Amino acid sequence: MKKSKGLILLFFQMIVLGTIVFCNFSPTMNIGQMVTSIPNQELSTSTNLQLLWVDNLGGYIRSVAISENGSYIVAGNSEGNLTLFDRNGLIWKYDVGSGNDIYGLDISADGFYIAAGDYSGNLTLFNRTDGYMWNYDVGVNCRTVAISADGNYIVTGDNNANLTCFDKSGFLWNYTDPDGRIMAEVAISDNGSYIITGTAGNASVSLFNRATPTNYLWSYNIGVEASAVDISADGEYMVSSDWVDCNVSFFNRTHGFQWDYKKTIDFYSSSISGAGDYFVSCDGYGFVTLFNQSQMLWDYNCGDLVLDAKISKDGQYFVSGDMNDMVTLFNRNGYVSNYLISDPPNNLAISQDGSYIVAGCTDGYVYLFCQSEPDEVDLTMLLITLLQPETGTIYFVLIVVVIGGIIAVLVIFWLKNKE
After folding, report:
1. pLDDT computed for residue 241 by the predictor
2. Is 257 contained in some domain?
């Protein structure tokens, strides 16, 4: 019996020593190498993107929006169709005019009011129950629309250099850019008090107070054309991105411009959290980049041009769509999950807490996703998660020691009982 125990102990020691030697001195492979060779897309199992439904609206999806809790979704396409959905699918559809692209679109926080701007220059206001309420001709191509969270105020930007403000009853005022620059992008704070704009052609980002619209509070030149502007819920912080000068710029309400981050290729989109503490951008190199108020935190290479990126209001999650037909979900630590769809997702929206995501595509399809826990534990991916490069050898040895020890104890007891 003593001889058997000695052999078992010797065998166990050889396993441990062999493992340590293998992990530390193998010229061809170690645990760190095994982990880092796996693409980033394989490294997260905390949540999945689950498809709830998909609908083909035809044409080209120009715009999408989602209510804060993800209960209501709206999409506009190149054929003039505005479509309202809930989490189960279609509610109603409205035709603003054949071939009349719906470029600007937004929905109130509760999903009751919907504002749509079309190529003909019309702003149309809808409500969820009755549909059409009224429309107003703002000029040529009402290209960008934003509605306050409470649904009380709407702003539009158009190709005639007008910033136009409305309430639920109709027109309030308009501001015309003195240099005749296109109002390419607009965003509005939750209570409608502050409005941020981005122009095309010697582009400027300008902040307005809705109550005193005769002139902006401040204005800052960012380059050639704004690709996106966004504003925090309280109107305290703003972010912009631009096409040609390739900057992402951060602002605050009091002092205007704070700092910018520059690349050598166009930024396609930028989006800021409700508190203004995090914002995200995407670019033509295929990177999605996360920032806080003072610096760039990290970026992720999606592999091809990223067309859009949106961050949740709580700043916990954000989503991107790229030319590889991929919808990709992130949290502040990095990649979470992705989903391959039929065509590039060029327009995205995300609910307040990131639970629901809508993607509109160039082939006319609209997708609704939710986050879900994995159906089952993937033991292989669990092992990969444990065996990070920095501590791979330690964890691997510990696992072998524990398993080997259990086996050795079981064999000893078996031999003892046999005697």
Report:
1. 95
2. yes
Q: Are residues 113 and 224 in the same domain?
A: yes
CA distance 295 to 288: 15
For residue 349, the cross-strand partners are 358
Query: How far from chain centre, in Å, is Cα 373?
Result: 19
- 372 DSSP β-pair partners: 48
Q: How wide is the angle at C-alpha 118 spanned by C-alphas 117 and 123, nearest 5°? A: 40
In a domain, 306, yes or no: yes
Model pLDDT, residue 293: 97
CATH number assigned to the domain comprising residue 364: 2.130.10.10
Residue 377 three-state SS: coil
User: What is the H or E stretch that residue 122 is in?
Assistant: strand 122-127
Give the per-residue pLDDT at 385. 41
Domain count of the fold of the chain: 2
What parts of the chain have a pLDDT lower than 50?
A: 7, 10, 16-17, 19-45, 376-395
User: Torsions phi, psi of 135, nearest 5?
Assistant: -140, 160
Angle subtended at Cα 331 by Cα 284 and Cα 389, rounded to the nearest 5 degrees: 90
Q: How far is CA 362 from CA 51, 60, 83, 103, 185, in A?
A: 18, 5, 16, 13, 21
- For 144, the token pair is 């960008």
Tell me which residue of 290, 285, 296, 367 sits closest to 326, measured CA to CA. 367
Burial classification of residue 315, based on how many CB atoms lie within 10 Å of its CB (0-12 exposed, 13-18 middle, 19 or more buried): buried
In this structure, the answer to whether residues 132 and 91 fall within a common structural domain is: yes
What's the domain range around 392? 2-40+383-418
